[in-house]
Amino acid sequence: MAVDQTSRVPLTPDRAAVAPDATTTGRLRSHIDGAYRVLTERPLSLYAAAFMRIGYGLLYAVVLVREFPHRHQIWGPESPWTPALARETFDQTGWFSLLTLSDSRQYFEFCYVVALLTAVLFTLGWRTRAVSVLFAIVVASFYGRNVLIGDGGDNLALLMAVYLVFTACGRRWSLDARRARRRAPVASRPAGAQPSGRWAAAGIARRFTATVLHNCAMLVIMAQMCILYGAAGLYKVQGDLWANGTALHYVLHSDLFRPWPALSDFVDDHQLMVGVASYLSVLVQVAFPFTLFSKVKYVVLAILVGMHLGIAVLLGLPVFSGVMILGDAVFLPDRFFRSVPRLWRALRARRRGPGTPALTTP
Amino acid sequence: MTARARDGAATPNPPRALRVAMGAVAAVCVAVSVAHVTLVFLHVAPSNPVSQRYDRQIRGWISPLFEQNWMLFAPNPNATRTQIFARTGTMTADGGGEVSDWFDISAVDKADTRHNPYPSRTTQHMLRRAWDSYVATHGEDEISHDAWALTRQRYLRNIAVRRVAAHSSRPYQMIRLKSVTQWIAPPDTGGPAPTYSTEPYTRLLPWWNVTPDGS
User: Fold this and answer.
1) Is A323 on the interface with B (CB under 8 A)?
2) Domain spans of chain B?
3) A150 interfaces chain B, CB cutoff of 8 Å
4) Which residue of A168, B92, B145, B215 is most buried, as measured by CB atoms within 10 A?
5) What CA–CA distance (Å, rounded) separates A79 from A260?
6) How far is A355 from chain B (nearest CA, A)?
7) Residue A14 pLDDT > 80, yes or no?
8) Residues of chain B scoring pLDDT < 70
9) Chain A partners of B70 at a C-beta cutoff of 8 Å?
10) How many C-beta neighbours within 10 Å does residue B115 have?
């Protein structure tokens, strides 16, 4: 398989000479060579990874704060989903949770504080690799403790917490990045002072592994989003209420998903809008994986973000929507993320006074 | 630019042994990623000859950490409205029994959702999903036929016990639930009135014992 060949390519001593080869095998080889370079030379989409780290860390902290008054009911030893029930389920599913190691209340409160602290540190990007492992363990522990209390958003948040462990999500917009910047002048010592021999080799190997892991993980996250939307869309295609365009009518009348009844009724009164939105959400979800290789993806992403904002407000599911929107962010290029702070600075400069030239920040 | 250099473009000429090792690392990473995505796909896709043949491997990899529940309002959103009631039973000293009135344990969820931009998951998911998972694991005989179903039955009972406790402090030894389900009216299209059952459907569950330790 191609997978095996990629590992052999860099061993070719003069791989540069292979590129212009016009034969089929030559072209194939140069394609594989190119893919290998993309995968291994530098970590891609570092800003998207950082954005997802900040977003998922923050959302998890928000959930823990929001559910603080209900924490015992949901995950604590007094939950109706008792530790005994959870352990019984673990025996059958292979799950594991730190929370069921002890039934004492103090232990649970301790875990809760650790979870909150982990989410905050993960958001800030402090010792990101180590904290990301802890974050994944925390998210999995809380998820597994009570699997019957969440929605699809919790499912995706768990997957992302696991995938982000393998990314270099702490390289941008993080405390780690700030520390690296401060230490940078020290690193630019004269060549003689550079580490050499075995240490240099270890450094190269470490950076290389981090890069490959990151790029593979980002591709897995993208594939996961495609599978998510593809499945969600294709499941809906099988439903007759989505087919006749009335699905949203029923969603808008679910008691637990209409925090603003007047608003839900107002939307429901516009049947054309409901019909179009029903069809559009199915169409966009099914089409999602196929639009990623063209600029159409930005249109589709914008529709999906709009759809999720609608779900956040109309159905009272802000965290679910946030988790989904953050997942979409993996498809945005670094260009986009870098332009956001620039735009923000420009806007602030314009607001500060008419004397300040706007939009000319370096 | 400095950032890019720091993020580690590999140095031009690492020793040969190192390059072999790095190539192997890359190959393993790619192979694991491809395998993972393939297994996730097979798990999500409808049952097919490939997924049937490798069922054990797929389930072993997906469960528990990589679960995929993407039936979001699908294949159909819930077109019914379910209320869940509980009543409690007490043995009296003379050997007789006393039962309480039915109490709507689902009403509090509806009330707590109203005008709440971010309802708690105890409101939106706890009783709703406990009920759904009970229904999914129990037939008309209302008997828990395996340990899995029994955990669902216990969970539902424990929620009911807690909600009744918030409403009344009277001691009791038994509890039973019933659900009343009604279809949500289809949209009014201005044409002939659509046909749908307006009759509520009631499901009565058996008495369950309640012990003070909740077992």
Assistant:
1) no
2) 11-62, 80-209
3) yes
4) A168
5) 29
6) 32
7) no
8) 1-13, 191-194, 212-215
9) 152, 155, 227-228, 231-232, 235
10) 12
